[in-house]
Amino acid sequence: MASQGRRYASGHQLCSKDVSAQAPSAFFDPATETLDRRQLQDRQLRRVRELLDEIVPRNPFYTRKLAQARVESWDDFRTLPLTTKAELAADQVATPPYGTNLTYPLDRYVKLHQTSGTTGKAPIRVLDTEQSWDWWARCWGHVYRGAGVGAGDRVFFAFSFGPFIGFWAAYEGTRKVGAMTIPGGGMQTDQRLQAMLDNDVTVLCCTPTYALRMAEAAERLGLDLAHSAVKATVHAGEPGASIPAVKARIEQVFGAQCHDHTGMTELGATGFTCQAQDGVHLIESEFVFEVIDPRTGAVLPPGEQGELVATNLGRAGMPLFRYRTGDLVRINHTPCPCGRTFARLAGGILGRADDMVVVRGVNVFPSAIEGVLREFPEVSEFRIEVYSEREMTELRVLLDPQPGTPAGLAEQVGERLHDRLLLRVPCELVEPGSLPRFELKAQRVIRRG
Ligand SMILES: [Zn+2]
Q1: pLDDT tens, 118-141?
Q2: 273 alpha carbon – ligand 1 mean position (Å)
Q3: Protein residues placing their CB within 5 Å of the ion ligand 1
Q4: How far is 368 from 366, CA to CA, in rounded Å?
Q5: What's the 401 CA to ligand 1 centre distance in angstroms?
């Protein structure tokens, strides 16, 4: 894939290492990353039409939904039906094991992954062809270049590889930018830290939660990550890397730029942060993005907050048209200092449409609570409990403190939550180390009857 030797004017830098100077090249695919909006939209519309020609009538799921579709304009496109996760799940239950969103015979598919699934819900299985797997890797090429990763870098995966797609795709993607991959599956946290130091790892890939856990372990072991070779951390699986307090803590401990990435197993790798670190760029060369009102499904004007809807353009074997991600976002179309014309999610993913809790008339996202809690380095883990009391929704927060933390912490956290959220949230300390630690898809919000 093309690259160019252009360098950034460095954005703000939180660490002592000269991150930008090491960036091998700014862009992964300069030809598409710098298109003006009109050219970009023309390209997207052409690819939408090509995709429709490819999948109708081969793909039974989308032939049912889109057989009559004619997309000559963006107005036509916006009349296409939305696709939901519930639809995909129901389709796989009705036609096991892979459902009917298959464009080709099964022998064309070379990879199987699945969504993590939540309690009581079966995961959705997704299949990729050789072509779509290569597309995943190229999307990750954008993620890596955004983080300044290229030839000469050593990328460590602090992750036990399972059926979750994110880090497999990330693992494949390193080849597209010429970096070396070092798998860290089947290891304890201490061993992973040692492997990173032994191999002069320059890039760490893991969930933000796990990066914080590694930070905690490094402190315990007296390892100095801030002065190690690590220059960038790249996060997937959870939105934490766009929460300012989480990002700041990771950057401080690792002495590295902390990068966010957005994506979904069933959809693809959709976004990345660049070195300007001001929002998550959407990979608009490979997807069409829209923002809708989650209640009505109507497309919102640019800049308004709503639910992100995406159409992937490079996964013809198991495509998604106008897929409701459930993620609440606000798209920023102003030019980015990095020079890319891809729009950005201001502040990353702001929350999940179905995560919002209404407490005494105040809309609260668990990510907003996490943002406040992460400002307290004494809090090593936490749990948010949502419960009903006299027909009203209530919240409380359990704090798992660092050993030796004074008892006043709960009150301090409670006061700051009140200042920020304008809501009284009871906070309680629990025994240090008593709450579960997570490697992937942390489940810190517990809902009780
Ligand atoms: Zn940028």
Answers
A1: 555 678 999 999 999 999 999 999
A2: 7
A3: 274, 276, 336, 338, 340
A4: 5
A5: 36
